Amino acid sequence: MSNHGNPLLSVIIPTRERAETLQYALQTALDQKSQNFEVIVSDNFSQDNTAQVVRSFSDPRIRLINPGRRLSMCDNWDFALMHASGDYVTFIGDDDAIVPGALDKLEASILTTRRLAYRWPLPAYIWPMDGKPARVVIQPPTTQASEVSLENLARLVVSLGGWKWNQIPCMYYSAVAKRISDSIREQTGRVFHSTCTDVFMSMAVPVFAKTAIDLGYYVSVAGSSEKSNGGIMGRADRHEYLDKFIQEYGDYKIHPTLFPEIPIALNLVPDSILLAMDKFPGFYGGMKFNYEAMWALLFRNNSYFYLYKLSRLDIIRKRQQIRRYHPFDVRRFLLYWAFHQASAMRNWMRSRILTSHGSAGHAPDNICDFARVLSTRNRAQNSLGG
């Protein structure tokens, strides 16, 4: 335990009616020797057997909480965070995993370095769905630990219209000192303010932590299952799901500088970044958000454009309307768009090479078994002095 008797780390798993994958997430989180952490399952008023699954793990490190009514994702995360007692917090999804033994290693890293934020290489696993087998789509290499400037990363994200926001530790798939979230709550009234909790937090953390440690070893695994946001995007009823997700936020209004005449789902990530910039003017006041780069990034990352059958030409035709809200230069937009297309093609070719060499591709049928494979690679890194 930490000096004041609380656990060093709180692992928070927000969940909603995904008991079938939650059991694996819990199994991996508890596969650690340390007793210096807690696992908080924040059950967002599920109507399945979520509570029974959690209680089937007779482990004192687990706590089950429930708000008693359905909350938006943002509110459920905030509710869960208020129950965390650890000095550091990491969130994972209910279809994600913690690498066995990784929390033991993370604990040692924290006690040695005592930084405010930590990140790590993040593999991405897709559960079996739609008749397709499980597969690994991203498996970055392990590396030596290094220091990262969060201020420089935040400036880069703003200057590139939101690109690389996920490289900043945001509690989700990273560990952040709870005193940072306490400071955010003290200054702004709550911790999470937008529909994209991870995006908002990634832009808030650099306000309070100048640097972070990139650990270089695997701690968690990002999963995508049939009921996750990624899995649902391939379903025929995805429009209904997106509408329901947004309706849970009531009369939520996107940032006034964003173009409102496109589906709101397209604006959620930049909205979270701009909202964070507004909340912390002392840090972001001298930075200028790049809207042309934002539009190009949306076409790279956001399948919603194709979902709603919007093209580059549609956006260019609306340039006069867009300029009522923010700057939009067509040449700059096309330049950034070409850059992202080239970058996306390079990443695709890299993933094909990794698949052909066995570093990615087919995987075990559940994320727990895949996490065990990664555990052996962490041990191999240890043996090599990593």
Give descriptors for this structure:
13 strands, single chain, 8-stranded mixed β-sheet, 386 residues, 17 helices, 44% helix, 5-stranded mixed β-sheet, alpha/beta
Strand content: 5-15%
Query: What is the number of strand segments?
Result: 13
The overall average pLDDT, rounded, is: 91
Classify the secondary structure makeup into a structural class.
alpha/beta
Classify the helix fraction into a percent range.
Answer: 40-55%
Number of structural domains: 1
Query: Biggest sheet, in brief?
Result: 8 strands, mixed
Residue windows where pLDDT falls under 50 for at least 5 positions: none
General shape: globular
The spatial strand order of the largest sheet comes to: 3-2-1-4-10-6-11-9
Determine the N-to-C terminus distance: 26 Å
- Computed CA radius of gyration, to the nearest angstrom: 21 Å
Number of helices: 17
SSE topology string: EHEHEHEEHEEEEHEHHEEHHHHHHHHHEH
Describe the structure.
By secondary structure, the chain is an alpha/beta fold. It has one domain. The chain contains 17 helices and 13 strands. The protein has an eight-stranded mixed beta sheet with strand order 3-2-1-4-10-6-11-9, with helices on both faces. Strand 1, helix 1 and strand 2 form a beta-alpha-beta unit. Helix 7 (197-208) packs parallel to helix 10 (268-279).
